[in-house]
Amino acid sequence: MTALILDGKATGEALRAAIAEDVKSLIAAGGPTPSLVAVLVGEDPASQVYVRNKHRACQQAGIAGDVRRLPAETTQEELLKVIGELNADDAVHGILVQLPLPPSIDARAVLDAIDPAKDVDAFSPVNVGLLVQGRPRFLPCTPRGIVELLSNYGLKSAGKHVVVIGRSDIVGKPIAMMMAASDGCCGPDYANATVTIAHSRTQDLARLVGTADIVIAAVGKAKMVQGDWIKPGAVVIDVGINRVGELLVGDVDYEAASLVASAITPVPGGVGPLTIAMLLRNTVTAAAARLRSSV
Fold first, then answer.
1. Cα first-last separation, the chain
2. What are phi and psi of 232, to 5 degrees?
3. Is the peptide bond before 143 cis (omega within 30 degrees of 0)?
């Protein structure tokens, strides 16, 4: 068996094209041009690349993108002041703070300070609570990207066993909730799964993974998931991005797993492009909500 490669780049491009049309429709209806401000503290090279890619994607979709660059010496108080100013600016619809922040800054305090209506990363405890209750304002970007990718290829999760490896607040926990929900952004066929969350202390992880119809690996350890762990015909979604020498690799041994799985995401070019597309989607959603509230 040779796995179908799930092309996140092509899927992301199609989604961004649809989002660009939504932006035009919103403006034509008298709405504002959606605006996203990224806050970048310091000179971390990876963060610089991520922010640049997000800014470029905004421009291509017709979204007003801006980057607030702050020196690494910025204090928590100074950063919170910037967040407060952006919260109060009606022209700003989405705010994201690029992580990681310098060690001297409490990232949780900063993320909690973002107005939930502008929290397009969906990190706010208010937005997380709405997700848990099944009435989300925004869906977390990477988890929604995973669901959109499954939907694009018709890979239904309803009634399936999904094993999520990783329990982070950014990917593991929210994708588990979305997969177990009775409905979702792409309909009930792409929810309604039986979900198991695994992590570093899970006993006999290989055996557990071998029971999964869909494996979502988001643990941050290069090639941790071996090919012989995968049940023949399973779908493998690899969220990990790990640098090994000059190469970027995922959390799954791609070469070995692709000989067993029915479908698999590559790294890079799998989930990553969809994360940015969903950030744009949330920004447009925030701008549309502002239009409705002003009517």
1. 56
2. -55, 130
3. no
Q: What is the pLDDT of residues 205-262, one digit of tens each?
A: 999 999 999 999 999 999 999 999 999 999 999 999 998 988 989 999 999 999 999 9
**CB-based burial label for 72 (10 Å; 0-12, 13-18, 19+):** exposed
Look at the block and give the residue holding tokens 């209806």. Answer: 29
Task: Say which residues have a Cβ less than 8 Å from residue 241's Cβ, sequence separation at least 6.
Answer: 248, 250, 267, 268, 272
Catalytic residues: 54, 98, 121
Look up residue 93 and give its amino acid.
H
3 state SS of 131: helix
Cβ contact 138:119 at 8 Å = yes
Q: Answer positive or negative: Cα dihedral of 72, 75, 78, 82.
A: positive
- Judged by DSSP in three states, 146 sits in helix
Nearest-angstrom CA–CA distance, 176 and 173? 5
Q: Amino acid letter at 23? A: V
For the segment(s) 34-115, the CATH number from 3.40.50.10860, 3.20.20.80, 3.30.2350.20, 2.30.33.40 is 3.40.50.10860
Q: What is the average per-residue pLDDT within 286-292? A: 88
Q: Which residues are 55's β-sheet partners? A: none
